[in-house]
Amino acid sequence: MTDFIPEDAMYAVAEMKQVSRNTFRLETTSATTAGPNRVVTVNLPSNAILDLQSLRFLFRATCSGSTENAAVVRAKLPGHASSMFQRCEIYINGQQVQQGSAEYHTIAQALRLCKSNLDNENSIARLCSHSYIDDDDAANDDEQIVLQDWYGFLGEGSTRFLNTGLVGDIQLRLTFSGNDCLVPLEVGNNVGDDLTADGKIAAARMTYSVSDMYFTISSVSLDPMYNEMLRERLQAGGLQVNYKEYYAYELGNITGNAGQLRFALSSQSIDRLYGLWRDSNHTSVGIKGHALVNATGVSAYVSNQLRFRAYNNGVSKLPGQMRYNWSVNNVKYPQHQGSIVDAACDVGYAVDKVSVNDGHLITSREAFEDGKYVNALSLCMPSKKGVAVKAGYDSRGINSAMVWDVSNATNPGAVAATGETGVLSAFAVAETTATLNIQLGRDLLVVF
Predict the structure, then answer these.
(1) Do residues 106 and 248 make contact, with C-beta atoms less than 8 angstroms apart?
(2) 8 domain residue, yes or no
């Protein structure tokens, strides 16, 4: 029989000595203003222990609408600050450790739908990061918003406190989205309403500018014993930091009711795959936003750029006709043909949200089918230690062919009133775990 003392009943204390912390403002090294497709660069503090979870990018986004005859169109910001960036790159001593996959905003939206929750969306994100699309047609959006949800090295690493004295200079490069991220609102209508003919002309001229940009980050000071321990580890064989890395793949020009998105990836740990479909007009400027049905507790609208659809012919309460399979080296996941109901269950299961207290940002079957559809697949072993453990599919040395196969979808065809083209686009995201190996003399090696 093993003796057991509950943790709450133990009389024990601990102490971490000489702890102090402070927050610093960082100015951009590029221009003080920006706009569509512009790059913003910042260097993080050197020789400091940084709390990566505290990194924030604050900026003022000023939208500009347009007028065509009697039609007045206001330009509105998309849902969430992360929707305004198309690329995020990280360099350490000039070596790229986060490759900056195309369409950072699309990857961020897919991950937020699966991994975030209503409490965050309706408090932190709504307060600071503009998680709700504004339906006020009195003026164009002009707001100071905060990007503080980071996907990849900065926000999903095994080490929250990173000693830059061991790795060297860290540089962050952000590329703003084009004008296609904006949402048009014709005066007198709602965001989800169709635009008039003149309204479409005016909406295509929407743009935005960015000013008052700066970053903030917190650093900590710990007992000198901590630094000694790190240096001993360096001398004994080095330090390792695991972090998430994402790869994006796209198949366009789908005019029928089926599509096979094929790609190959060599990685030490492929953790999850995410698939989504949308109209190829997601790169066009001025396409109206979409009003979600039964979007309880979240924003009622989604921007056209980030409207992910199942194309299941509107049969949201029943499985409908659309079917899908993932295939990894000719092994199908699942073994049967999955329906929209299977995909709905996998949104939470794939990211290990299996507790009764867990949740995500999809609150109805209608919203899932017609604006928030994400087809997720888990290839990793869940761990309470998270990214600190590499437990995904190891495809190194193997030409790992992967396929996302969708069949029996319903292509609505071109719809002039809404701007739909009937030409669809499939997009897949591969979530992997990469490792940054740190050696003496700031010698770095990245294993993807």
Answers:
(1) yes
(2) no
The residues, ordered by sequence, that sit 6+ positions from 414 with a Cβ below 8 Å of its Cβ are 420, 421, 422
Domain that holds residue 194: 20-447
What span, in angstroms and rounded, lies between the C-alpha atoms of 140 and 351?
Answer: 37
Enter the tokens of residue 436. 């940054």
Token readout for 398 is 């193997």
The answer to whether the CB of 217 falls within 8 A of the CB of 21 is: no
Residue 167 is encoded by which pair of tokens? Answer: 């790795």
98 within 8 A of 247, measured Cβ to Cβ: no
User: Among the residues of 356-435, which ranges form H helices?
Assistant: 365-370
The answer to whether position 262 is within a domain reads: yes
Placement of tokens 């089918």 in the chain: 369
Kindly report the CATH number assigned to the domain that includes residue 43.
Answer: 2.70.9.10
Whether 6 is covered by a domain: the verdict is: no
**CA-based angle 422:425:427, to the nearest 5?**
160
Distance separating alpha carbons of residues 259 and 55, to the nearest angstrom: 40
How far, in Å, CA of 341 to CA of 282, rounded? 26
Instruction: Tell me if the pTM is above 0.70.
Output: yes
Q: In whole angstroms, what is the distance from residue 382 CA to residue 391 CA?
A: 8
Where would I find the H helices in 148-223? 164-167, 197-203
Q: Write the pLDDT tens digit of every residue in 96-136.
A: 999 878 899 999 999 999 999 999 999 999 999 999 999 99
Residue 24 lies in a domain: yes
Count of structural domains within the chain: 1
DSSP β-bridge partners for residue 171:
43, 91
- Residues pairing with 144 in the sheet: 60
